[in-house]
Amino acid sequence: VLGAMAAERALAMATCTAPVNIAVIKYWGKRDTDLILPINSSLSVTLHQDQLKTTTTAAASRDFTEDRLWLNGAEVDVGHPRVQACLREGEQPPHSPGGGASLILTPPHCPVPAVRRLARKRRGGSEDAATLSLLSYKVHIASENNFPTAAGLASSAAGYACLVSALARLYGVEDELSEVARRGSGSACRSMWGGFVQWQRGERPDGTDSLAHQVAPETHWPELRVLVLVVSGQKKPVASTAGMQTSVETSPLLKHRAEVVVPERLAQMIRHIRERDFEGFGQLAMRDSNQFHATCLDTFPPIFYLSDLSRHIIALAHRYNAHHRHTKVAYTFDAGPNAVIFTLADTVDEFVEVVRRSFPPATNGDQFVQGLPVGSAALPQELVAAVVTEPVRGAVQYILHTKPGPGPQLVDDPSQHLLGADGLPRYRA
Amino acid sequence: VLGAMAAERALAMATCTAPVNIAVIKYWGKRDTDLILPINSSLSVTLHQDQLKTTTTAAASRDFTEDRLWLNGAEVDVGHPRVQACLREGEQPPHSPGGGASLILTPPHCPVPAVRRLARKRRGGSEDAATLSLLSYKVHIASENNFPTAAGLASSAAGYACLVSALARLYGVEDELSEVARRGSGSACRSMWGGFVQWQRGERPDGTDSLAHQVAPETHWPELRVLVLVVSGQKKPVASTAGMQTSVETSPLLKHRAEVVVPERLAQMIRHIRERDFEGFGQLAMRDSNQFHATCLDTFPPIFYLSDLSRHIIALAHRYNAHHRHTKVAYTFDAGPNAVIFTLADTVDEFVEVVRRSFPPATNGDQFVQGLPVGSAALPQELVAAVVTEPVRGAVQYILHTKPGPGPQLVDDPSQHLLGADGLPRYRA
């Protein structure tokens, strides 16, 4: 115990997990690229961490001689100026467009200095020597995802939300942290909450009112389910950070969307969620996804995230809903090729079978459905005839079945830290 | 001659040709579906009839016992209620959505009664017995295109413009005819003029000010060229008549486009044309094509006319322009898969070679370029490296090279009539 106490002084460590979120009223475009202030409010559903999560361990020690960072077990060159500039405090290196694919510490949006500043502010008066010295130590950070990066599900939102949560724990900060997470990656602020989350645009130029808050917890709508259709043969799409600023500069339709359409839709969407009205929720989610992609197409040069396969999936969803004469499934697409389907628990088995028939697995298919259990379903012949047209083999790699889930979690069990007592990753790539 | 005179009394006949037009400020959406009044003004380039034209012969005779219609040599069943209702006068049968693919006489938009009414009005006072009896005769109409229907180039605009022109000649009407053509198919009014043509939205509820007029004649910009990239494996897309009304009903972005964006763009486009400013003209044509397709995507359920191949062509054009550091080619896409490229004469040879390298012909390629002559071009290696990425064999069926051309033409030579002295087609399918 004495040894542990000594180690505790010498090495402070905190581990958190954080979720992915999927927007149903989309964020696209910043009014301030340094502070990451959006041109419109957005609303998302936080996905359950049992299926998709990032885990991050942050450690500080007087024994660390340099800042170090590991992503999915592989060390990122900390000598790289971008990483260095991020980890050091007070610097404002030139802004470079981020990738958005995973946790990439792009200055000036690195949360490390921001959380340190919050910690100093908190403790300003008091003389907590332990914390003050902790703040002067070098940090080791390790972060990993419980899903394959190649699937295009890697989320900078989960990555930054997790980093901010772990650092805040490390330094004992208990402030509202969505503003800090937002400065890492805009949509990361929505991953700071579970359930149904609104990111309010805010009005102030300093961004202090551009925050995320919970509209309803994950327990509010127990029947809601999410199917992620992971698409095969993904290419690297246009980076969203660069893409959205081109849209802001060139799309007249995006301006109208942000100023006029989104405020109305946001209020409607909150109402649909409060009333657990799937018809309204699903219809509006589809319309808003389509409108986001419409503004990408109105960008010059145009940006395309939807492919012929996306169109296949969209048409399939509309045929399925038309067959049932109401909205049973709703698609939404972000700045990548995967489709996310919202549905209710009683529809999952049948719709998964419809997807399996429409996009028959290329291999034997025993890994075709992952995540929450899916039962088998026999499709009525008239449903098959009306809905399953022109199957495309192998186009969907697998389906991930999940549901809304909670916000970032503290990992109490020390055996779950990604860093060992020596401050190095327990598992290397 | 005497026989001819007798025949002339017994059989009156007129033949006209009319052009296809391609919009650079797009028309999408009606504010009045019966009168075909658009929600916004539009602007098009009339294509030369040497490459793309419709020819129509209209005949009236006291000997005809029924109205008859031949399209591309095949008789259309005149017993069909839609055709009958169209040819008869004064009827207002229930509106049904038209195909838009070729000349289809859809009531209540058939120009025959409308031109007859104009003829009566003109002659109202005078006692021209010959014309009055002509108006009481049954009509035979034959219409054909000088391009394959399967190529997706068949144009209801050329078809209706030609029918109206031939009927007006038959009955001796010399009025402004774009309003009559408009009621056949909206964009047909623009095919009533050559060169650069604006269709003014108009304000009046009766549509009498919703007319086409010429912005500049085809001789105004002699260097301007048009390349139609005819795409292989075409499927029947969503019919534009039905599609555009769904857009009017469901797309908030279309409303904004029509009310705010188009009025500004129309004035800009006219300026670019007047100044023969290809940079401005091409950029705006591309932006407006993209915005039209954006509003299709914002429609619910969404409408897709652009495919992965369209995206390939769009990306190719942007790479080509980027390589040359200014706008050398400009794409525009209508409600179908073919791409139309605007360029200047000095760029044609090189860009055609770029297209040939990017979409190598599936066969030996001797019919790959049609229409106006295209010279050979050796592509600099750095151009190939920068622009020709991932060739897709056989995706483009052929390229049609054409240029702006004149409006409808009267065919004086009687040997060119599509109907013989017996009132029947000279050539049958």
TrEMBL record, chains A, B:
Pathway: Steroid biosynthesis; cholesterol biosynthesis. The keyword Chaperone does not apply. Keywords: ATP-binding, Cholesterol biosynthesis, Cholesterol metabolism, Lipid biosynthesis, Lipid metabolism, Lyase, Nucleotide-binding, Steroid biosynthesis, Steroid metabolism, Sterol biosynthesis, Sterol metabolism. GO terms for biological process: cholesterol biosynthetic process; isopentenyl diphosphate biosynthetic process, mevalonate pathway. Its EC number is 4.1.1.33. GO terms for cellular component: cytosol. The keyword Metal-binding does not apply. Pfam families: MDD_C (PF18376), MVD-like_N (PF22700). InterPro entries: GHMP_kinase_C_sf, Mev_decarb, Mev_diP_decarb, MVD-like_N, Mvd1_C, Ribosomal_Su5_D2-typ_SF, Ribsml_uS5_D2-typ_fold_subgr. It catalyses: (R)-5-diphosphomevalonate + ATP = isopentenyl diphosphate + ADP + phosphate + CO2. Residues 18-212 form the Diphosphomevalonate decarboxylase-like N-terminal domain. GO terms for molecular function: ATP binding; diphosphomevalonate decarboxylase activity. It comes from the Eukaryota. Residues 226-410 form the Mvd1 C-terminal domain. Catalyzes the ATP dependent decarboxylation of (R)-5-diphosphomevalonate to form isopentenyl diphosphate (IPP). Functions in the mevalonate (MVA) pathway leading to isopentenyl diphosphate (IPP), a key precursor for the biosynthesis of isoprenoids and sterol synthesis. PANTHER family: DIPHOSPHOMEVALONATE DECARBOXYLASE (PTHR10977). Belongs to the diphosphomevalonate decarboxylase family. This is Diphosphomevalonate decarboxylase. It comes from Onychorhynchus coronatus. The lineage of its organism: Eukaryota, Metazoa, Chordata, Craniata, Vertebrata.
